[in-house]
Specification:
The complex is a heterodimer of chains A (657) and B (254). Chain A has 17 helices and 19 strands. Chain A is of the alpha+beta class and 657 residues long. By secondary structure, chain B is α+β, with helices and mostly antiparallel strands. Chain B is built from eight helices and seven strands, in the order E-E-H-E-E-E-E-E-H-H-H-H-H-H-H. The N and C termini of chain B lie far apart (60 Å). The chains are: A alpha+beta (657), B alpha+beta (254). The interface between A and B is large, with 83 and 80 residues.
């Protein structure tokens, strides 16, 4: 039976209570306790900095050439916090409620409430670090709206919020490096967990420059390695984003929860051809001002500008008048797919819808005319002023769109289509962020905990930093307090030797195949299976087919992949091969999980389970649980269920109408 | 937007490891779509090399949306190629035409040793940040964020400086391999904000000292860094760093 270790007592005092009673480690003992952190995104960097500040001996690992490059850096829109600076009715409870509802009642209430409670502290901490959030003329912080909410609680730094937050965490991390509390291992990839007497006690890492395998001891290991969206090949993730660390944890006994919960983001730049290597997000913040539409006529080949207002279908505003263009991501993505599948798509591929700023430009132009007290402003003047306002709000996003597509989004509506963006599933963790392996923790996107079946916009940054700055410093201490008598274990211990040999064998096996097809060939094929059969809509038959196809592809990979170069040198193809090998296993588990969950919820849409209006139909009676999968050997998994109990948020049919 | 295909000749720097002398290799890139990004063109070339049983070209890249700062190619003599304010990953092939010859080199700077082919070691930048590119505030010490109003103009200037992605193009573009634009961006961001005041002087002194120690050259105000910076970090930051450094040198108690 899974024990989520949720503290007793009322929801709003659980965390206070936990903090008041968890075990502490005295400063002298902290100096002898070592913590390994995998990944330096918001979760990993904030955890490394905070634990370093507390005096633990931290070793942090990233595969990039600097911790500052982790993919949190690419988050655009913002970070939520229940500050209620706008006096618009926000509160901790509302942020908690919106998140549970937005996740379609598949998240754990206690974790989400804690997240909402510490959200305000995150903003305070980041401002103190010098993160340059957007401000109003009075010098105070500015907010904007995001999907799935009716208040303005999103803090932002233009369209580069993730960058600024990560650089804040990175600078705190580098400060600890300078103080000697954190040792940083750039261009290193974790390739296995070392377990001794059932506890996580270290890792095997590959130095990506020299190819050498290294053994590292830790009293605890924190997996902060992000999500697994790249299983789809095309996603908004960075090229290097991977599941390897989390997957090695799974193979060492950590359960993997809700793998089928993936987020397809509604506003991305559409695919342009077979050469495409990744997809680029256009921030959800654009839906504050942009209006989404398609022609009312099927297969309309006219240019956007030639389609008059009355022949446009603003389908989100039509279907969801209460939230309009700001419905949650899963809803917006499915609505776009529905229109395109029905033949209303635009652009050459017909797999796109318009995101139009014309109305916003005019509205802002009129406001500027009023502010500047210009009389008899011409239409051109109004548009010009409006474009300036839009440029200040979203300039970097518009520039990026123009560079990628060659079109000017100030003149023409953007073409957008949904793309894989975020994964709500991940390593199963209890309230303390501990996996089912003692001493092995997981933070940020790598764990499954807070977003249920659908994450709301601007909540990923919040969760990563909440876990790293404000949760793990308490919860890991509660574990390490019992480890103060454990001396650092020498890395010539048989468990380290065995783990290293296993990693070396796998690498040698990969290098010795010398087949005929590149790693990317297999990755693209896997991505296509996943997108077609485990993407925005899933059904029983497709999932069963996908499982067989992935098995066959995996066998072919291990028979016919070609990796050039040597193992003992800088070899990006070998790195990719290891990651794709893991995706080929995870992809199967995602399909198994999607097949098992015979309900629709959030981003998981089973075609067999929908309302008459085509909305996701949950089945609370049978599926109100977290599906945690235990690895049982090649392609075998055992399902463990963590029942979800809702005390404060009673599950209802999620409505944004 | 009209699309077209093109055939290109690439002259690419190949270097097995840091001890290898390195040389240019001429390669053909065939059937390249104008819709591809520059790195997708490299993907195509690499796929071809792998299929021919040759070693693909090693290059750094990650986010491919112009923000992580990992990509780092010197293209036809310009850091990140011909488009202004653009990283290599965001440079698209419509910048080139059929029959073009494109020369691609790694960042050239003593402080950025080559690891392999187009991949260089930029850890010197991390060490400069370690020397003072932060505000010393431990987790949990912060007051309410709105207790500290910040003049919007200064906040905007700080943000513009903070937009630096640490890619190293400024160093690669500079004839002296100076890292002044990088250092000045961080010093400026924190000097402009009230939170950065307590460590303002030591920060400027220590970061400059570390920059010198890493072997970056001196600044002679040619402005090549600003011209090539993909985030268009302004040269005025270097002026500010100079003021900060001199003022700290005169008035610091240390």
């Amino acid at each position: 039976m899974l024990n989520a270790k949720i503290p007793a007592g009322p929801l709003n005092s659980k965390w206070e209570d936990y903090k008041g009673h968890c075990k502490l480690v005295n400063p002298a003992n902290k100096r002898n306790l070592e913590v390994i952190i995998i990944g330096t995104g918001l979760a990993g960097a904030s955890a490394a900095a905070s634990l370093g500040e507390l005096g633990y001996k931290v070793k942090a690992f990233c595969f990039q050439d600097s911790p500052r490059r982790a993919h949190s850096i690419a988050a655009q829109g913002g970070i939520n916090a229940a500050k209620n600076y706008q006096n618009d009715g926000d509160s901790v409870f509302r942020l908690f409620y919106d998140t549970v509802k937005g996740g379609d009642y598949r998240a754990r209430e206690a974790n989400v409430h804690r997240l909402a409670e510490v959200s305000g502290n995150i903003i305070d901490q980041c401002v103190a670090q010098g993160v340059p959030f957007a401000r109003e003329y009075g010098g105070l912080l500015s907010n904007r709206s995001f999907g799935g909410t009716q208040v303005q609680r999103t803090f932002y730094a233009a369209g580069q919020t993730g960058q600024q937050l990560l650089l804040g965490a990175y600078s705190a991390l580098e400060r600890q490096v300078a103080l000697g509390n954190v040792k940083m291992y750039n261009r290193h990839e974790m390739l296995d967990i070392v377990k001794i007497d059932g506890k996580a006690r270290g890792i095997i890492a590959r130095n990506l420059v020299t190819g050498e395998l290294e053994r590292h001891f830790g009293h605890a290991v924190l997996i902060c390695s992000g999500g697994y969206g790249n299983v789809f090949y095309l996603s908004t993730n960075a090229m290097g984003s991977n599941v390897t660390a989390a997957w090695k944890a799974t193979k060492n006994g950590a359960y993997f929860a809700n793998p089928c919960f993936t987020q397809i983001h509604p506003t991305c730049i559409p695919v342009s051809g077979d050469h495409q290597s990744k997809l680029t997000l256009m921030s959800e913040s654009l839906r504050n001002d942009g209006r989404i539409w398609v022609p009312k006529k099927q297969n309309d080949t006219r240019k956007a500008s030639e389609i008059p207002e009355e022949e446009r279908d603003y389908y989100l505003e039509r279907r969801y008048p209460a939230f309009g263009n700001l419905v949650p991501r899963d809803v917006a993505s499915r609505a776009a797919k529905e229109r395109c599948d029905a033949g209303y798509g635009v652009g050459t591929s017909k797999q796109a819808v318009y995101l139009d700023f014309a109305a916003a430009i005019e509205r802002y132009g009129n406001i500027e005319v009023g502010k500047r007290q210009i009389t008899n402003a011409s239409k051109e003047e109004i548009i010009k002023l409006g474009k300036e306002v839009v440029a200040e709000k979203y300039g970097n996003l518009f520039d990026m769109y123009a560079k990628i597509t060659g079109e000017n989004p100030y003149e023409l509506p953007m073409r957008i289509y949904p793309a894989v963006h975020y994964t709500m599933g991940g390593l199963w963790v209890d309230y303390e962020l501990g996996t089912t392996v003692p001493g092995l923790y997981s933070l940020g996107e790598a764990n499954f905990s807070d977003h249920g079946a659908n994450r709301l916009g601007a909540s990923a940054l919040m969760q990563g930093l909440a876990d790293g700055y404000f949760v793990i410093p308490y919860t890991v201490g509660n574990y390490l307090a019992d480890e103060i008598r454990t001396k650092a274990i020498p890395t010539d211990h048989p468990a380290f030797v065995e783990a290293e040999n296993k990693v070396r064998d796998t690498i040698n096996k990969l290098m010795s195949i010398k087949g005929s097809k590149s790693v990317d060939f297999f990755h693209k094929k896997l991505g296509k299976i996943m997108w077609d059969k485990c993407g925005m809509a899933r059904n029983e038959q497709g999932l069963k087919e996908a499982i067989e196809e992935i098995k066959a592809l995996r066998a072919e990979f291990w028979r016919d992949v070609r990796i050039p170069g040597e193992a003992n040198e800088f070899n990006p193809e070998l790195e990719k091969a290891g990651r794709v090998a893991d995706f080929l296993e995870l992809g199967e588990l995602m399909c198994i999980d999607a097949l098992n969950r015979r309900e629709s919820c959030g981003g998981h849409f089973r075609e067999e389970s929908q309302t008459d209006e085509g909305e996701a139909q949950r089945d609370d009676e049978n599926f109100s649980y977290v599906a945690a999968w235990e690895y049982k050997g090649d392609g075998q998994y055992e399902l463990h269920k963590e029942p979800l109990e809702f005390v404060e948020c009673k599950p209802t049919q999620r409505s944004y109408k | 937007m009209e699309h077209y295909n093109m055939n290109l000749t690439l002259k690419v720097w190949r270097q097995k490891n840091k001890d290898d002398q390195g040389r240019f290799e001429t390669l053909q890139a065939k059937n390249i779509s104008s819709e591809m990004s520059f790195l997708e063109m490299f993907d195509v070339v690499n796929e071809e090399l792998i299929n021919e049983g040759k070693e693909p070209i090693a290059f750094d890249h990650d986010c491919r949306e112009g923000i992580c700062g990992m990509c780092s190619m010197h293209i036809n003599g310009r850091a990140h190629g011909p488009w202004n304010g653009t990283t290599t990953c965001q440079l698209h092939m419509r910048a080139f035409k059929d029959g073009d010859t494109i020369t691609v080199e790694p960042w050239r700077a003593g402080a950025f040793p080559v690891i392999k082919d187009l991949t260089v070691d930029r850890s010197a930048f991390d060490r400069i940040i370690e020397a003072g590119g932060y505000i010393s505030v431990n987790t949990g010490n912060a007051q309410d964020a709105n207790c500290l109003p910040v003049d919007k103009n200064k906040a905007d200037l700080a943000f513009a400086a903070a937009a630096c992605i640490g890619c190293g193009a400024c160093v690669a573009a500079c004839k002296n391999s100076s890292a002044m634009l990088f250092v000045s961006a961080k010093v400026s961001q924190l000097a402009l904000l009230p939170q950065g005041q307590p460590e303002r002087q030591t920060r400027a002194l220590n970061m400059v000292a570390q920059m010198d120690k890493e072997g970056f050259g001196s600044c002679t105000n040619t402005g090549a860094c600003e011209a090539e910076c993909p985030k268009e970090i302004s040269l005025t930051n270097i002026a500010r760093l100079n003021r900060e450094f001199i003022a700290a040198g005169f008035s610091s108690e240390k």
